[in-house]
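Hi P.,

Sorry for the delay on this. The queue was packed all week, but I finally got your sequence through. Input first:
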Amino acid sequence: MPMPHVEIHDRRPSVAGQFYTDDADALREEVRGYLAAAEPQSQAHTILAMAPHAGYYYSGRIVGLTLGKANLGQTILMLGPNHTGLGKPLAVWPDGRWQFPGGVLDVDAELAALLMEQEPKLTPDTLAHQREHSLEVMLPFLAALDAQTRIVPVCVSHPGLDTLLAVGRAIGRALRGYPRAVSILVSSDMSHFVHHELAKELDARALAPALALDPTRFFETVRGEGISMCGVLPMTLGLAAALELGATHAELTGYATSGQVNGEIRRVVGYAGLLVS
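Then the structure:
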């Protein structure tokens, strides 16, 4: 009797050669350079990290400072925003591998299935991820830290605070009982296209409740003050999950704006790195 055909979902890079080089050797060297600038690895297990997802020229340094210091589990639950508007509001990439120039990372299909079983609002959907860059740009960093890293990519566009908090708590409960150590990685830039000084001011206001581990106040601050942080939804969800996992401490690993890189201070994007343990 023939075996039933099961489709495995491999993802090819969508922004290689744009956000980062598509030359595998050059990419490896660049990423190692960014990671080497980090402070010594944290002793405490990193429950959640937040890092930016712009082109490496702009934000690679902040990603390196953050993930280089993090003490990550071997499975990473990746939470990113949806810039394309495609797909489901809480879209889980269920299985297969994510490719990047020079390598692949396997999806932890067992954990993906568990999360969707525990929280039905999390649904299998690859469309939301096809052209989305926010999680893809993290892969070379995760692979450089540990080539055996497994990932569960989730694209978050659900706008409702109550749902984000409830789904975050459900994820936290599922991870708490999971036999392998898991860390959450939220991908987000901060303010978009405002003056450098205003970006610093707005971003400090957004980061304060995140550093205080208060997902409700964080969401209400970013939304209420019109701060154009693209990852407010995945970060709200991630903070709720982190609290469920017993998080008590958060620290800023770095902050910069694009204006500090290219000298154009009138219209910048802000980049911040956070670690939660």
